[in-house]
């Protein structure tokens, strides 16, 4: 039998070779065409993974210092703002919020103790209250603390029996201290004086009740 290919077989073999070469070239072109798409897809997935990591980290990290009360500051939440008649048995002493009189105390400096229920209404309006123990605070200390306070939305009054020389309060927050130069006092004022977190920070602190012993 002859081993030579017939013309037809030669043509078939040639066509088969060409088809194989075409398929090979096409596969190479497809790889070249899809490679950028694959790389882009991997890049998108990598970016998505980074974003997810950042979001998860941001959701679980601790609150920033600005959102955290200063050292020694006690805070209370969920305080009621209802108006009541008569005395209120407050859970904190001096009080920093809760049910109170419908009449607020005009802000200012007082030489006599004031009714808690009137002062608390002023705190609701964004005022801060510096209560002091008259038996443990000197005239010089009173002058120093008065000078350091804002000119408005402040109440300064004696509070007999106070366990510390001073206590500065705002709605839902309080800091006790002994030295008028304590830097925490200025920080407290910056944070809580007419704070937007209070119930009515734009309500007035004048035009209402002048308590006994008001001097300014």
Q: What's the short version?
A:
By secondary structure, this protein is an alpha/beta fold.
- Count of individual beta strands: 6
Distance between termini? 130 Å
Which of globular, elongated, flat, extended, rod-shaped describes the shape? rod-shaped
* Strand proportion: 5-15%
- SS content category: alpha/beta
Low-confidence stretches: 40-67
Mean pLDDT: 82
Count of helical stretches: 4
Number of domains: 2
Rg (C-alpha, Å): 38 Å
Oligomer: single chain
Give a written overview of the molecule.
Residues 40-67 have low confidence and may be disordered. The chain has two domains: 1-61; 69-192, no CATH class. The termini are far apart. The chain is rod-shaped and about 130 Å long. It has 216 residues and is an alpha/beta fold. The chain is built from four helices and six strands.
List the helices and strands and how they pair.
Layout lengths: L6 H54 L12 E3 L32 E2 L6 H9 L3 E5 L6 H10 L5 E5 L7 E5 L2 E5 L5 H10 L24
Parallel strand pairs: 2-4, 3-4
Antiparallel strand pairs: 1-6, 3-5, 5-6
């Amino acid at each position: 039998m002859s081993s030579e290919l017939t013309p037809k077989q030669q043509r078939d073999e040639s066509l088969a070779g060409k088809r194989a070469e075409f398929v090979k070239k096409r596969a190479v072109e497809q790889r070249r065409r899809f490679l950028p798409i694959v790389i882009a897809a991997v890049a998108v997935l990598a970016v998505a993974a980074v974003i997810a990591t950042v979001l998860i980290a941001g959701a679980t990290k601790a609150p920033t210092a600005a959102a955290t009360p200063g050292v020694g500051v006690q805070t209370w939440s969920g305080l009621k703002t209802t108006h009541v008649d008569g005395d209120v048995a407050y859970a904190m002493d001096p009080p920093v919020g809760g049910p109170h009189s419908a009449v607020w105390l005009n802000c200012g400096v007082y030489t006599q103790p004031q009714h808690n229920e009137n002062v608390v209404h002023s705190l609701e309006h964004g005022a801060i209250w510096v209560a002091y123990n008259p038996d443990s605070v000197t005239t010089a200390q009173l002058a120093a603390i008065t000078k350091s306070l804002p000119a408005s939305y402040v109440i300064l009054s004696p509070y007999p029996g106070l366990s510390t020389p001073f206590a500065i309060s705002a709605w839902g927050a309080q800091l006790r201290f002994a030295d008028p130069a304590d830097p925490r006092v200025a920080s407290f004022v910056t944070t809580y004086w007419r704070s937007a977190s209070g119930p009515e920070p734009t309500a007035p602190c004048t035009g209402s009740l002048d308590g006994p012993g008001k001097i300014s």
